[in-house]
């Protein structure tokens, strides 16, 4: 989800920057923020959400559980809401939403790297 949304925002930001460049050689800073938050940051977080469970290891069950921990609809909504807020110039709203997204991600990473409980004998 994050890779697709991030790629979409990359295209949106590129179009906005291209249209903006037609009017003025000065780049519009909100469009650059959309590119950074909506595209780059979202792609980075989505990639880390895949890499984290793989790195922690522990077998296929633990891998699947790790993917479930890192799957975050609130994070996806927050990332895209922040990009929309930046696109329309609501920087303070974007800052609050980005903080919520960062907090959600931090909690998920902390849960992901909890020590493994001792396996019960079956």
Short description:
The chain has 122 residues and is mainly α. The protein is built from 5 helices and no strands. Helix 2 runs antiparallel to helix 3 (60-70).
Please tell me about this protein's structure:
- The protein is mainly α.
- Helix content is 80%, strand content 0%.
- It contains five helices and no strands.
- The protein has helices at residues 2-23, 29-56, 60-70, 73-87, 91-112.
- Helix 2 packs antiparallel against helix 4 (73-87) and helix 4 runs antiparallel to helix 5.
- The longest helix is centred in the middle third of the chain and has 28 residues, at 29-56.
- The model has no long low-confidence stretch (mean pLDDT 84).
Helix content: over 70%
Strand content: under 5%
What string, H for helix and E for strand, traces the elements in order? HHHHH
Q: Which of globular, elongated, flat, extended, rod-shaped describes the shape? A: elongated
